[in-house]
Write a structure and sequence with these properties.
The protein is mostly helical. It contains 13 helices and no strands. The protein has one domain: Farnesyl Diphosphate Synthase (Orthogonal Bundle), CATH 1.10.600.
């Protein structure tokens, strides 16, 4: 039976910044539109966090029963390691999804945006379908696209919309930026797992691109995310503080390009998660300081 510490480790806390980052950016964009709503922001954060935890448990379960994690290098997997029964991990995922839907429904009731229920259902289906079901899209190389859409565009623009009733250019730029960094985090994870994924028939984008190009795409995604703020600089000069994040990107970028041992890429996951969080904080701060400039 898995211990509480193992369940926490299985939730993969280092991936949670990818859930918080779009909510911070979306909330800052709503603030710039003079429509900040604290309760709505908290509910959006809870939905995002629970969906991320649900994805992690669902991925653990689905990969575990397929045998994809039998020779895994990286954080503990509950099913693959035998620490927890598959059905318990599956129900942990369903529990997280259920709570996310409850908080999401409260947000829908507050905003009276009933069409968002369809968005919420889409989020849960996408979360489960990444590695679950008969034809998981994560095994076909589409995981990165879905991460960009749901943990970038949907999470950020949805947060802004549920507070302001509209979206803005900064919200769109921030959504693209944090979505790219979330994809970079996934790429770092999948580059590390290329040998085992190939053996298990899991054709991630990293597998399809090949080791070298997959590593290069990580650097490109980080660079593009950070440099996009230049688009906003003419009218919001404080947005350039996001460029202060460049030094923090150098070490994980170097490790991705030069780290040949699979274990050497493990720290990149945490570093990329912190880059995403730092990006969201600096992006939000830039919007706030530029407000009324």
């Amino acid at each position: 039976m898995a211990t509480a510490a193992q369940w926490i480790q299985g939730a993969r806390l280092r991936t949670l910044p990818a859930a918080i980052a779009p909510v911070l950016i979306g909330t800052a964009a709503a603030y710039e539109l003079q429509s900040f709503r604290l309760l709505n922001a908290i509910l959006a954060a809870l939905v995002a966090l629970l969906l991320q935890i649900g994805v992690n448990y669902a991925n653990d379960y689905s990969d575990g029963i397929r045998g994809t994690d039998e020779d895994r290098v990286g954080p503990l997997r509950l099913v693959g390691s035998g620490a927890a029964r598959p059905d318990r991990v599956k129900w942990a995922a369903f529990g997280a999804f259920g709570l996310a839907m409850i908080f999401g429904l409260v947000l829908v009731i507050i905003t009276q945006s009933w069409w968002l229920i369809l968005v919420g259902i889409g989020c849960v289906l996408a979360a489960w379908g990444y590695t679950g079901g008969k034809n998981p899209y994560g095994y076909m190389g589409l995981g990165d696209l879905f991460v960009f859409v749901f943990f970038g565009l949907v999470a950020t623009l949805g947060t802004t919309y549920t507070q302001a009733g509209q979206v803005s250019l900064p919200a769109v730029i921030g959504a693209i930026g944090t979505g790219l960094i979330a994809c970079a985090l996934l790429m770092a994870n999948n580059v590390r797992d290329i040998p085992t994924d190939m053996a298990a028939g899991k054709r991630t984008l990293a597998v399809r691109l090949g080791d070298r190009h997959a590593r290069e795409s990580y650097v490109l995604m980080l660079a593009l995310a950070i440099l996009l703020v230049v688009v906003l600089a003419p009218t919001r000069p404080w947005m350039l503080i996001v460029l202060l994040l460049i030094p923090a990107c150098l070490m994980p970028a170097w490790l991705m390009v030069n780290g040949r041992k699979r274990k050497s890429l493990i720290p990149v996951l945490k570093q990329t998660g912190m880059i995403n969080l730092g990006y969201s904080v600096l992006f939000s701060l830039g919007l706030i300081l530029s407000h009324g400039f």
